[in-house]
Design goal:
The protein is an alpha/beta fold. Helices cover 38% and strands 23% of the residues. It has 15 helices and 19 strands. The chain has a six-stranded antiparallel β-barrel. Strands 2-1-3-4-5 form a five-stranded parallel sheet, with helices on both faces. Strands 7-6-9-10 form a four-stranded parallel sheet, sandwiched between helices. Strand 9, helix 11 and strand 10 (302-304) form a beta-alpha-beta unit. Helix 6 (154-173) packs antiparallel against helix 12 (309-321) and helix 8 crosses helix 10 (250-270). The protein is elongated, with a radius of gyration of 25 Å. The structure holds manganese (II) ion.
Length: 502
Protein backbone atom coordinates (compact mmCIF):
# COMPACT_ATOMS: atom_id res chain seq x y z
CA UNK A 1 0.00 0.00 0.00
CA UNK A 2 1.36 3.39 -1.01
CA UNK A 3 1.08 6.46 1.23
CA UNK A 4 -0.71 8.28 -1.59
CA UNK A 5 -2.64 5.26 -2.75
CA UNK A 6 -4.81 7.13 -5.23
CA UNK A 7 -1.97 8.78 -7.08
CA UNK A 8 0.34 7.50 -9.78
CA UNK A 9 3.34 8.58 -11.82
CA UNK A 10 4.04 7.23 -15.29
CA UNK A 11 7.35 5.89 -16.51
CA UNK A 12 7.66 6.86 -20.17
CA UNK A 13 10.64 5.45 -22.05
CA UNK A 14 11.81 7.01 -25.26
CA UNK A 15 13.46 5.12 -28.10
CA UNK A 16 13.40 4.94 -31.90
CA UNK A 17 13.26 2.37 -34.71
CA UNK A 18 16.88 2.52 -35.88
CA UNK A 19 18.01 -0.68 -34.18
CA UNK A 20 15.21 -3.07 -35.06
CA UNK A 21 12.33 -4.76 -33.27
CA UNK A 22 14.50 -6.97 -31.11
CA UNK A 23 16.12 -3.97 -29.48
CA UNK A 24 12.72 -2.36 -28.93
CA UNK A 25 11.48 -5.54 -27.24
CA UNK A 26 14.41 -5.36 -24.85
CA UNK A 27 13.74 -1.66 -24.22
CA UNK A 28 10.16 -2.51 -23.38
CA UNK A 29 11.12 -5.35 -21.04
CA UNK A 30 13.71 -3.26 -19.25
CA UNK A 31 11.30 -0.39 -18.86
CA UNK A 32 8.70 -2.72 -17.34
CA UNK A 33 11.25 -4.09 -14.88
CA UNK A 34 12.29 -0.58 -13.81
CA UNK A 35 8.66 0.54 -13.39
CA UNK A 36 7.92 -2.51 -11.23
CA UNK A 37 11.00 -2.02 -9.11
CA UNK A 38 10.29 1.69 -8.57
CA UNK A 39 6.71 0.83 -7.73
CA UNK A 40 7.90 -1.58 -5.04
CA UNK A 41 10.33 0.93 -3.53
CA UNK A 42 9.34 2.20 -0.09
CA UNK A 43 11.10 5.44 -0.95
CA UNK A 44 8.46 6.25 -3.56
CA UNK A 45 5.08 7.07 -1.96
CA UNK A 46 2.91 6.74 -5.11
CA UNK A 47 2.28 4.00 -7.68
CA UNK A 48 4.65 3.86 -10.63
CA UNK A 49 2.93 2.78 -13.84
CA UNK A 50 4.72 1.53 -16.92
CA UNK A 51 3.59 3.12 -20.18
CA UNK A 52 4.18 1.68 -23.66
CA UNK A 53 7.52 2.87 -25.00
CA UNK A 54 7.40 5.83 -27.36
CA UNK A 55 9.30 5.87 -30.64
CA UNK A 56 7.46 8.36 -32.88
CA UNK A 57 6.26 11.97 -32.47
CA UNK A 58 2.61 10.86 -32.59
CA UNK A 59 3.11 8.33 -29.78
CA UNK A 60 4.95 10.88 -27.66
CA UNK A 61 2.21 13.48 -28.13
CA UNK A 62 -0.58 10.97 -27.49
CA UNK A 63 1.07 9.64 -24.31
CA UNK A 64 1.76 13.06 -22.80
CA UNK A 65 -1.74 14.32 -23.60
CA UNK A 66 -3.13 11.18 -21.96
CA UNK A 67 -1.05 12.01 -18.87
CA UNK A 68 -2.63 15.48 -18.81
CA UNK A 69 -6.09 13.98 -18.96
CA UNK A 70 -5.60 11.29 -16.33
CA UNK A 71 -6.58 13.09 -13.17
CA UNK A 72 -4.69 10.87 -10.75
CA UNK A 73 -1.49 10.93 -12.81
CA UNK A 74 0.52 13.46 -10.83
CA UNK A 75 3.54 13.52 -13.10
CA UNK A 76 5.68 11.74 -15.66
CA UNK A 77 9.13 10.20 -15.35
CA UNK A 78 10.90 10.13 -18.70
CA UNK A 79 13.99 8.16 -19.65
CA UNK A 80 15.72 7.53 -22.98
CA UNK A 81 16.92 3.94 -23.00
CA UNK A 82 18.34 4.19 -26.50
CA UNK A 83 18.65 7.37 -28.48
CA UNK A 84 15.35 9.17 -29.06
CA UNK A 85 15.87 12.09 -31.43
CA UNK A 86 14.42 14.94 -29.47
CA UNK A 87 12.70 16.94 -32.19
CA UNK A 88 10.18 14.11 -31.96
CA UNK A 89 9.41 15.33 -28.42
CA UNK A 90 8.70 18.99 -29.19
CA UNK A 91 4.97 18.74 -29.78
CA UNK A 92 4.41 16.42 -26.84
CA UNK A 93 6.48 18.44 -24.40
CA UNK A 94 4.73 21.65 -25.43
CA UNK A 95 1.42 19.99 -24.63
CA UNK A 96 2.52 18.47 -21.32
CA UNK A 97 0.85 20.10 -18.31
CA UNK A 98 2.04 17.69 -15.63
CA UNK A 99 5.31 17.83 -13.66
CA UNK A 100 8.21 16.04 -15.32
CA UNK A 101 11.16 14.19 -13.85
CA UNK A 102 13.98 13.19 -16.16
CA UNK A 103 15.57 10.00 -14.87
CA UNK A 104 19.08 9.77 -16.23
CA UNK A 105 19.84 6.13 -15.66
CA UNK A 106 20.93 3.04 -17.54
CA UNK A 107 19.47 -0.45 -17.35
CA UNK A 108 22.85 -2.10 -16.78
CA UNK A 109 24.67 -0.71 -13.82
CA UNK A 110 28.07 -1.89 -15.06
CA UNK A 111 29.84 -2.17 -18.36
CA UNK A 112 30.20 -5.93 -19.06
CA UNK A 113 33.91 -5.68 -19.78
CA UNK A 114 34.33 -9.12 -21.31
CA UNK A 115 31.27 -9.25 -23.50
CA UNK A 116 30.49 -5.66 -24.46
CA UNK A 117 29.79 -5.32 -28.18
CA UNK A 118 27.96 -2.87 -30.43
CA UNK A 119 24.57 -4.45 -29.63
CA UNK A 120 25.12 -3.64 -25.97
CA UNK A 121 26.28 -0.15 -26.89
CA UNK A 122 23.22 0.49 -29.04
CA UNK A 123 20.82 -0.74 -26.38
CA UNK A 124 22.42 1.15 -23.48
CA UNK A 125 22.66 4.64 -24.92
CA UNK A 126 21.17 6.73 -22.12
CA UNK A 127 24.51 8.41 -21.59
CA UNK A 128 24.00 10.33 -24.81
CA UNK A 129 20.29 9.67 -25.45
CA UNK A 130 19.37 11.50 -22.26
CA UNK A 131 21.64 14.39 -23.23
CA UNK A 132 19.74 14.81 -26.47
CA UNK A 133 16.50 14.87 -24.48
CA UNK A 134 17.94 17.24 -21.89
CA UNK A 135 18.81 19.70 -24.62
CA UNK A 136 15.25 19.75 -25.87
CA UNK A 137 13.79 20.31 -22.43
CA UNK A 138 16.24 23.15 -21.86
CA UNK A 139 15.61 24.57 -25.31
CA UNK A 140 11.91 24.68 -24.40
CA UNK A 141 12.86 26.35 -21.10
CA UNK A 142 11.10 23.59 -19.17
CA UNK A 143 11.46 23.29 -15.45
CA UNK A 144 11.99 19.68 -14.45
CA UNK A 145 13.88 17.53 -11.98
CA UNK A 146 16.85 15.54 -13.19
CA UNK A 147 17.76 12.46 -11.18
CA UNK A 148 21.06 10.79 -12.02
CA UNK A 149 22.12 7.30 -11.00
CA UNK A 150 21.36 3.66 -11.44
CA UNK A 151 17.64 3.05 -10.93
CA UNK A 152 18.29 0.60 -8.10
CA UNK A 153 20.31 3.13 -6.10
CA UNK A 154 18.48 4.08 -2.88
CA UNK A 155 19.56 7.69 -3.36
CA UNK A 156 18.03 7.88 -6.83
CA UNK A 157 14.80 6.34 -5.57
CA UNK A 158 14.76 8.74 -2.63
CA UNK A 159 15.10 11.70 -4.98
CA UNK A 160 12.24 10.37 -7.10
CA UNK A 161 10.19 9.90 -3.93
CA UNK A 162 10.71 13.50 -2.86
CA UNK A 163 9.64 14.73 -6.26
CA UNK A 164 6.52 12.57 -5.97
CA UNK A 165 5.68 14.24 -2.65
CA UNK A 166 6.06 17.67 -4.24
CA UNK A 167 3.91 16.54 -7.16
CA UNK A 168 1.20 15.38 -4.74
CA UNK A 169 1.19 18.84 -3.16
CA UNK A 170 1.00 20.43 -6.58
CA UNK A 171 -1.78 18.10 -7.68
CA UNK A 172 -3.72 18.93 -4.51
CA UNK A 173 -3.66 22.63 -5.41
CA UNK A 174 -5.21 22.09 -8.83
CA UNK A 175 -8.86 23.06 -8.48
CA UNK A 176 -8.51 23.49 -4.70
CA UNK A 177 -10.78 25.99 -2.97
CA UNK A 178 -9.84 28.19 -0.04
CA UNK A 179 -12.35 30.31 1.84
CA UNK A 180 -11.74 33.59 3.60
CA UNK A 181 -14.00 34.68 6.41
CA UNK A 182 -13.71 38.42 6.22
CA UNK A 183 -10.97 40.25 4.38
CA UNK A 184 -7.38 41.10 5.12
CA UNK A 185 -6.28 42.62 8.42
CA UNK A 186 -6.49 46.36 7.84
CA UNK A 187 -3.32 47.95 6.43
CA UNK A 188 -1.26 44.75 6.46
CA UNK A 189 0.77 44.40 3.26
CA UNK A 190 2.38 41.00 2.97
CA UNK A 191 -0.82 39.05 3.46
CA UNK A 192 -2.34 40.78 0.43
CA UNK A 193 -1.76 39.64 -3.13
CA UNK A 194 -3.22 39.01 -6.53
CA UNK A 195 -5.76 36.19 -6.25
CA UNK A 196 -6.34 36.13 -9.99
CA UNK A 197 -2.62 35.72 -10.68
CA UNK A 198 -2.46 33.03 -8.00
CA UNK A 199 -5.31 31.07 -9.53
CA UNK A 200 -3.75 31.32 -12.99
CA UNK A 201 -0.38 30.21 -11.72
CA UNK A 202 -1.16 27.78 -8.91
CA UNK A 203 -4.58 26.41 -9.82
CA UNK A 204 -6.39 27.14 -6.55
CA UNK A 205 -9.15 29.66 -5.99
CA UNK A 206 -9.68 31.97 -3.04
CA UNK A 207 -13.06 33.48 -2.30
CA UNK A 208 -14.67 35.28 0.60
CA UNK A 209 -17.81 34.45 2.54
CA UNK A 210 -19.28 36.75 5.16
CA UNK A 211 -18.76 35.64 8.75
CA UNK A 212 -22.57 35.61 9.11
CA UNK A 213 -22.67 32.45 6.97
CA UNK A 214 -20.20 30.81 9.31
CA UNK A 215 -22.20 32.01 12.31
CA UNK A 216 -25.30 30.33 10.86
CA UNK A 217 -23.40 27.02 10.75
CA UNK A 218 -22.12 27.53 14.29
CA UNK A 219 -25.64 28.19 15.56
CA UNK A 220 -26.97 25.11 13.79
CA UNK A 221 -24.63 22.67 15.58
CA UNK A 222 -26.44 19.65 16.97
CA UNK A 223 -26.42 19.56 20.79
CA UNK A 224 -25.84 15.82 21.05
CA UNK A 225 -22.84 15.98 18.75
CA UNK A 226 -21.60 19.00 20.68
CA UNK A 227 -21.56 16.98 23.91
CA UNK A 228 -19.57 14.26 22.14
CA UNK A 229 -17.04 16.79 20.96
CA UNK A 230 -16.64 18.10 24.51
CA UNK A 231 -16.02 14.55 25.70
CA UNK A 232 -13.36 14.14 23.03
CA UNK A 233 -11.67 17.29 24.37
CA UNK A 234 -11.82 15.93 27.90
CA UNK A 235 -10.22 12.65 26.89
CA UNK A 236 -7.49 14.24 24.86
CA UNK A 237 -6.39 17.34 26.77
CA UNK A 238 -5.56 18.47 30.26
CA UNK A 239 -8.58 20.74 30.77
CA UNK A 240 -8.09 23.85 32.90
CA UNK A 241 -10.28 23.95 36.02
CA UNK A 242 -12.29 26.93 34.80
CA UNK A 243 -13.30 24.96 31.68
CA UNK A 244 -14.37 21.79 33.47
CA UNK A 245 -18.04 20.93 34.09
CA UNK A 246 -19.27 23.49 36.64
CA UNK A 247 -16.06 25.49 36.11
CA UNK A 248 -16.40 29.29 36.07
CA UNK A 249 -15.83 29.47 32.27
CA UNK A 250 -17.37 26.19 31.12
CA UNK A 251 -19.49 28.16 28.65
CA UNK A 252 -16.34 29.27 26.85
CA UNK A 253 -15.38 25.67 26.14
CA UNK A 254 -18.87 24.83 24.93
CA UNK A 255 -18.77 27.84 22.63
CA UNK A 256 -15.29 26.93 21.34
CA UNK A 257 -16.44 23.42 20.47
CA UNK A 258 -19.51 24.84 18.77
CA UNK A 259 -17.31 27.14 16.66
CA UNK A 260 -15.07 24.23 15.70
CA UNK A 261 -18.02 22.13 14.58
CA UNK A 262 -19.61 24.99 12.66
CA UNK A 263 -16.34 25.73 10.89
CA UNK A 264 -15.77 22.09 10.09
CA UNK A 265 -19.28 21.78 8.65
CA UNK A 266 -18.79 24.88 6.51
CA UNK A 267 -15.46 23.60 5.15
CA UNK A 268 -16.74 20.09 4.50
CA UNK A 269 -19.93 21.22 2.79
CA UNK A 270 -18.08 23.71 0.60
CA UNK A 271 -15.27 21.30 -0.28
CA UNK A 272 -12.66 23.71 1.05
CA UNK A 273 -9.05 22.68 1.72
CA UNK A 274 -8.25 25.62 3.95
CA UNK A 275 -9.42 28.96 5.28
CA UNK A 276 -8.50 32.30 6.76
CA UNK A 277 -10.17 34.47 9.36
CA UNK A 278 -9.44 37.82 10.94
CA UNK A 279 -9.95 39.16 14.44
CA UNK A 280 -11.25 42.38 12.86
CA UNK A 281 -14.29 40.67 11.43
CA UNK A 282 -15.97 38.32 13.89
CA UNK A 283 -19.48 39.74 13.95
CA UNK A 284 -21.74 37.12 15.51
CA UNK A 285 -18.94 34.88 16.79
CA UNK A 286 -18.41 35.09 20.53
CA UNK A 287 -14.70 34.18 20.42
CA UNK A 288 -11.89 34.37 17.93
CA UNK A 289 -11.55 30.74 16.82
CA UNK A 290 -8.57 29.29 18.71
CA UNK A 291 -8.75 25.61 19.56
CA UNK A 292 -11.06 25.21 16.54
CA UNK A 293 -8.34 26.35 14.17
CA UNK A 294 -5.64 24.40 16.02
CA UNK A 295 -7.59 21.17 15.67
CA UNK A 296 -8.71 21.74 12.08
CA UNK A 297 -5.10 22.38 11.03
CA UNK A 298 -4.09 19.11 12.66
CA UNK A 299 -6.79 17.43 10.58
CA UNK A 300 -5.15 18.68 7.37
CA UNK A 301 -6.78 22.02 6.61
CA UNK A 302 -4.57 24.91 5.55
CA UNK A 303 -4.93 28.10 7.58
CA UNK A 304 -3.68 31.66 7.55
CA UNK A 305 -4.60 34.23 10.18
CA UNK A 306 -5.57 37.84 9.43
CA UNK A 307 -6.81 36.98 5.96
CA UNK A 308 -3.51 35.42 4.87
CA UNK A 309 -4.75 33.18 2.04
CA UNK A 310 -1.28 32.57 0.53
CA UNK A 311 -0.04 31.04 3.76
CA UNK A 312 -3.26 29.03 4.11
CA UNK A 313 -2.67 27.53 0.67
CA UNK A 314 1.03 26.91 1.35
CA UNK A 315 0.30 25.22 4.67
CA UNK A 316 -2.21 22.95 2.96
CA UNK A 317 0.19 21.97 0.16
CA UNK A 318 2.99 21.28 2.62
CA UNK A 319 0.69 19.14 4.76
CA UNK A 320 -0.07 17.07 1.70
CA UNK A 321 3.62 16.78 0.78
CA UNK A 322 4.44 15.59 4.30
CA UNK A 323 1.70 12.95 4.46
CA UNK A 324 2.79 9.81 6.33
CA UNK A 325 6.06 11.34 7.56
CA UNK A 326 6.81 11.85 11.23
CA UNK A 327 6.21 15.46 12.31
CA UNK A 328 3.91 18.20 11.11
CA UNK A 329 3.58 21.19 8.79
CA UNK A 330 2.05 24.13 10.55
CA UNK A 331 1.02 27.76 10.29
CA UNK A 332 3.63 29.79 12.20
CA UNK A 333 4.75 33.31 12.97
CA UNK A 334 8.15 34.60 14.01
CA UNK A 335 6.99 36.18 17.25
CA UNK A 336 9.77 37.17 19.64
CA UNK A 337 13.57 37.06 19.70
CA UNK A 338 16.08 35.93 22.28
CA UNK A 339 19.17 37.93 21.34
CA UNK A 340 21.54 36.16 23.72
CA UNK A 341 24.86 36.05 21.80
CA UNK A 342 25.52 32.58 23.22
CA UNK A 343 22.10 31.19 22.45
CA UNK A 344 20.21 33.29 19.90
CA UNK A 345 16.70 32.02 19.33
CA UNK A 346 13.41 32.80 17.66
CA UNK A 347 10.22 32.06 19.56
CA UNK A 348 7.58 31.06 17.05
CA UNK A 349 3.91 31.15 17.93
CA UNK A 350 0.69 32.96 17.16
CA UNK A 351 -1.85 34.67 19.32
CA UNK A 352 -3.83 31.40 19.42
CA UNK A 353 -3.58 29.39 16.24
CA UNK A 354 -0.67 27.00 16.63
CA UNK A 355 -1.26 23.65 14.92
CA UNK A 356 -1.97 20.86 17.37
CA UNK A 357 0.01 18.56 15.06
CA UNK A 358 3.17 20.10 16.56
CA UNK A 359 2.29 19.30 20.16
CA UNK A 360 4.82 17.36 22.13
CA UNK A 361 3.04 15.47 24.89
CA UNK A 362 -0.45 16.21 26.15
CA UNK A 363 -1.69 19.69 25.32
CA UNK A 364 -3.40 21.71 27.99
CA UNK A 365 -6.71 23.33 27.12
CA UNK A 366 -6.89 26.81 28.62
CA UNK A 367 -8.85 30.03 28.45
CA UNK A 368 -7.28 33.46 28.72
CA UNK A 369 -8.26 36.97 27.74
CA UNK A 370 -7.16 38.22 24.32
CA UNK A 371 -6.19 41.87 24.09
CA UNK A 372 -7.47 42.35 20.55
CA UNK A 373 -10.69 41.62 18.70
CA UNK A 374 -13.02 42.74 21.48
CA UNK A 375 -14.57 39.33 21.98
CA UNK A 376 -14.97 36.90 24.90
CA UNK A 377 -11.92 35.00 26.16
CA UNK A 378 -10.97 32.39 23.58
CA UNK A 379 -10.08 28.78 24.39
CA UNK A 380 -6.76 27.54 23.11
CA UNK A 381 -4.39 24.57 23.36
CA UNK A 382 -1.05 25.29 25.00
CA UNK A 383 1.96 23.04 24.41
CA UNK A 384 5.66 22.85 23.61
CA UNK A 385 7.18 21.60 20.38
CA UNK A 386 10.00 19.07 20.06
CA UNK A 387 13.51 19.71 18.83
CA UNK A 388 15.09 18.74 15.53
CA UNK A 389 15.80 19.91 11.99
CA UNK A 390 12.96 22.02 10.56
CA UNK A 391 12.35 24.84 8.14
CA UNK A 392 10.15 27.86 7.64
CA UNK A 393 8.67 28.64 4.25
CA UNK A 394 6.81 31.76 3.16
CA UNK A 395 5.02 32.75 -0.03
CA UNK A 396 4.95 36.39 -1.07
CA UNK A 397 3.45 38.26 -4.01
CA UNK A 398 6.33 40.41 -5.33
CA UNK A 399 4.21 42.17 -7.96
CA UNK A 400 5.56 40.51 -11.10
CA UNK A 401 5.91 37.07 -9.52
CA UNK A 402 5.38 35.00 -6.41
CA UNK A 403 8.39 34.16 -4.30
CA UNK A 404 8.89 31.13 -2.08
CA UNK A 405 11.40 31.79 0.67
CA UNK A 406 12.77 28.97 2.80
CA UNK A 407 14.94 29.14 5.90
CA UNK A 408 16.35 25.96 7.35
CA UNK A 409 16.32 26.03 11.15
CA UNK A 410 17.11 23.84 14.11
CA UNK A 411 14.24 23.57 16.58
CA UNK A 412 15.48 23.38 20.15
CA UNK A 413 14.02 22.26 23.43
CA UNK A 414 12.21 24.77 25.65
CA UNK A 415 14.64 26.78 27.75
CA UNK A 416 12.11 27.22 30.57
CA UNK A 417 8.51 26.39 31.41
CA UNK A 418 7.17 29.85 30.46
CA UNK A 419 4.37 29.60 33.05
CA UNK A 420 2.73 32.88 32.07
CA UNK A 421 2.71 32.39 28.29
CA UNK A 422 -0.83 31.39 27.32
CA UNK A 423 -0.04 30.06 23.81
CA UNK A 424 1.75 27.11 22.24
CA UNK A 425 5.30 27.91 21.27
CA UNK A 426 8.34 26.61 19.47
CA UNK A 427 11.95 27.75 19.70
CA UNK A 428 14.42 27.54 16.86
CA UNK A 429 17.87 28.61 15.74
CA UNK A 430 17.83 29.81 12.15
CA UNK A 431 20.66 28.71 9.85
CA UNK A 432 23.34 29.73 9.19
CA UNK A 433 23.08 32.00 12.23
CA UNK A 434 20.59 34.43 13.72
CA UNK A 435 22.04 37.59 12.18
CA UNK A 436 22.54 36.27 8.65
CA UNK A 437 19.24 34.42 8.51
CA UNK A 438 17.15 37.34 9.73
CA UNK A 439 18.98 39.80 7.50
CA UNK A 440 18.49 37.60 4.45
CA UNK A 441 14.83 36.99 5.30
CA UNK A 442 14.14 40.71 5.56
CA UNK A 443 16.10 41.54 2.39
CA UNK A 444 14.04 38.95 0.53
CA UNK A 445 10.81 40.51 1.77
CA UNK A 446 9.94 37.37 3.68
CA UNK A 447 6.55 37.31 5.39
CA UNK A 448 6.01 37.13 9.14
CA UNK A 449 3.61 34.23 8.57
CA UNK A 450 5.17 30.96 7.46
CA UNK A 451 4.65 27.27 7.26
CA UNK A 452 6.89 25.61 9.81
CA UNK A 453 7.82 22.11 8.69
CA UNK A 454 9.28 19.30 10.75
CA UNK A 455 9.35 16.79 7.93
CA UNK A 456 9.99 18.43 4.56
CA UNK A 457 13.43 19.36 3.32
CA UNK A 458 14.69 21.92 0.87
CA UNK A 459 14.82 19.41 -1.98
CA UNK A 460 11.08 18.74 -1.82
CA UNK A 461 10.35 22.47 -1.85
CA UNK A 462 12.78 22.97 -4.73
CA UNK A 463 10.89 20.34 -6.68
CA UNK A 464 7.61 22.01 -5.76
CA UNK A 465 8.89 25.44 -6.82
CA UNK A 466 9.99 24.00 -10.17
CA UNK A 467 6.52 22.55 -10.77
CA UNK A 468 4.91 25.88 -9.94
CA UNK A 469 7.58 27.78 -11.90
CA UNK A 470 7.99 29.74 -8.71
CA UNK A 471 11.00 31.73 -7.58
CA UNK A 472 12.75 29.98 -4.71
CA UNK A 473 15.18 31.70 -2.38
CA UNK A 474 16.86 29.60 0.25
CA UNK A 475 18.54 30.60 3.48
CA UNK A 476 20.62 27.83 5.02
CA UNK A 477 24.05 26.68 6.14
CA UNK A 478 25.85 28.21 3.16
CA UNK A 479 24.07 31.54 2.95
CA UNK A 480 26.28 34.56 2.69
CA UNK A 481 24.64 37.97 2.58
CA UNK A 482 26.47 39.60 -0.33
CA UNK A 483 25.84 36.61 -2.53
CA UNK A 484 22.21 36.42 -1.39
CA UNK A 485 21.63 40.06 -2.33
CA UNK A 486 23.10 39.41 -5.76
CA UNK A 487 20.79 36.45 -6.19
CA UNK A 488 17.81 38.70 -5.49
CA UNK A 489 19.05 41.21 -8.04
CA UNK A 490 19.80 38.58 -10.69
CA UNK A 491 16.40 37.03 -10.17
CA UNK A 492 14.78 40.38 -10.94
CA UNK A 493 16.29 40.20 -14.40
CA UNK A 494 15.59 36.49 -14.85
CA UNK A 495 11.90 36.79 -14.05
CA UNK A 496 11.50 39.67 -16.46
CA UNK A 497 12.91 37.57 -19.28
CA UNK A 498 12.28 33.90 -18.88
CA UNK A 499 9.27 32.45 -20.52
CA UNK A 500 8.49 28.83 -21.13
CA UNK A 501 7.91 28.27 -24.82
CA UNK A 502 4.28 27.18 -24.94
MN1 LIG B 1 -0.34 36.91 12.43
Amino acid sequence: MKIFNDQEVWLITGSQHLYGEETLDQVKRHSQIIAEELHKSDAIPVSVKYQPIVTRPEEIFETLVRANQKDNCIGVIVWMHTFSPAKMWIRGLKALRKPMLHMHTQFNRDIPWDTIDMDFMNLNQSAHGDREFGFMASRLRMERKVVVGHWQFPKAQMEIGKWCRAACGWHDWQGAKFVRFGDNMRQVAVTEGDKVAAEMKFGFSVNTHPVSELVAKVNAVNDGLLQERLKAYEERYAIADALKVKGSQRDALIEAARIEMGLEAFLAEGGYKGFTDTFEDLEGLRQLPGIAVQRLMAKGYGFGAEGDWKTAALVRAMKVMGKGLKGANAFMEDYTYHFDPEDSLVLGSHMLEVDEGLAEGKASCEVHPLGIGGKEDPVRLVFNVGEGAALNAALMDMGNRFRLLVNEVEAVSPRASLPKLPVARVLWKPLPDMETACKAWILAGGAHHTCFSQNLDLEILEDFAAMAELELLQIGKETEIRRFKQEIHWNEVYYKNVERIN
